[in-house]
C-alpha cells in the first residue's frame, strides 16, 4: 500500500499491543456447554465485575464465529486491569484518557472482547465485523446487555469491511481506542487492516490494541514495512514492552 496521501501528515499516534502467550498460572474461568441446536454457549466468569458473560459460538459457520486464544488473553488483561490498573500492561493505554474511552473493536467475531471491555471499563463499545457475522454479534450483545449496563457500559454493532472507505466513513472515527484479537491470521489481511487504521487515524490520536498468539515478530515487521513506504512522514514507530502475563510489542506513529 502506498502511503503518499497528503492526509498522512495528519496521522497521529496509535499503539499496537500484541499478546504472545496466555498466563497459564491463572485458573481458566471459561466453561463451555453445547445445546441441542449445535451452537456452543460459553459461560465466562469475569472476576472484576463478579458476573458471567455468555457467548454463543457457531463453529459450523466459520472461524469468525468461534473464540480464539488471543481473545481470552485480552479479556484476562481487561479483567485484571479493572482489578489492579497499577500493574496492568493496559494502564499506558487508558491513563492518558480522562474520560471513559470510546472503543471500536475490529473483527469482533463473537464480540467477547468488546462486550467485556464495555463491562469492565464502563464505557461504550462498537463491535464490527463482516456483514454476515453481525447477526451473531447482535445475539451476544443483547444476551449480555444487562451485565454491561449494570457496570455502566453499552454495546452497539455494525458491519465494517476493512479497506472500504464508505464503511469507515459510516462508522466514523470518534473513538479513543481500537481493539482487535487474532485478526491477521492470513497475510492478505494486513493491507486492508492497515488501510482501515490509516483512514481512521487521519487527524486523530487513537490507540490500537491488538492481541495475537502467534507470529508476533512477523506482525510487527509488517507494520515496520508499511512505515517504509514513500510518504512525507513515517506512520509508525516501534517499541517493545513485557509483563508477567504476556510479551508485548508496540507500534506507534509519531
From TrEMBL:
Coiled-coil boundaries: none
Name this protein carries in UniProt: Methyltransferase small domain-containing protein
Protein source organism: Trifolium subterraneum
Amino acid at each position: 500500500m502506498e502511503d503518499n496521501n497528503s492526509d498522512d501528515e495528519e496521522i497521529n499516534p496509535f499503539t499496537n499491543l500484541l499478546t504472545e502467550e496466555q498466563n497459564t498460572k491463572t485458573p481458566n474461568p471459561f466453561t463451555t456447554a453445547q445445546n441441542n441446536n449445535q451452537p456452543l454457549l460459553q459461560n465466562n466468569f469475569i472476576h472484576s465485575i463478579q458476573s458471567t458473560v455468555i457467548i454463543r459460538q457457531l463453529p459450523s459457520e466459520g472461524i469468525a464465529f468461534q473464540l480464539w486464544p488471543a481473545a481470552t488473553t485480552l479479556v484476562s488483561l481487561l479483567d485484571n486491569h479493572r482489578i489492579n490498573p497499577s500493574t496492568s500492561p493496559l494502564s499506558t493505554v487508558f491513563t492518558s484518557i480522562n474520560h471513559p474511552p470510546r472503543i471500536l473493536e475490529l473483527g469482533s467475531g463473537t464480540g467477547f472482547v468488546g462486550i467485556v471491555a464495555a463491562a469492565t471499563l464502563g464505557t461504550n463499545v462498537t463491535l464490527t465485523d463482516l456483514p454476515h457475522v453481525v447477526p451473531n454479534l447482535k445475539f451476544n450483545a443483547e444476551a449480555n446487555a444487562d451485565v454491561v449496563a449494570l457496570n455502566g457500559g453499552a454495546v452497539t454493532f455494525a458491519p465494517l469491511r476493512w479497506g472500504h472507505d464508505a464503511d469507515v466513513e459510516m462508522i466514523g472515527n470518534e473513538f479513543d481506542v481500537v481493539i482487535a484479537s487474532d485478526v491477521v491470521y492470513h497475510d492478505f489481511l494486513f493491507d486492508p487492516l492497515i488501510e482501515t487504521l490509516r483512514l481512521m487515524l487521519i487527524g486523530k490520536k487513537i490507540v490500537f490494541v491488538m492481541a495475537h498468539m502467534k507470529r508476533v515478530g512477523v506482525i510487527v515487521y509488517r507494520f515496520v514495512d508499511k512505515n517504509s513506504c514513500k510518504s512525507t512522514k513515517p506512520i509508525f514507530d516501534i517499541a517493545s514492552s513485557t509483563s508477567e502475563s504476556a510479551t508485548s510489542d508496540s507500534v506507534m506513529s509519531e
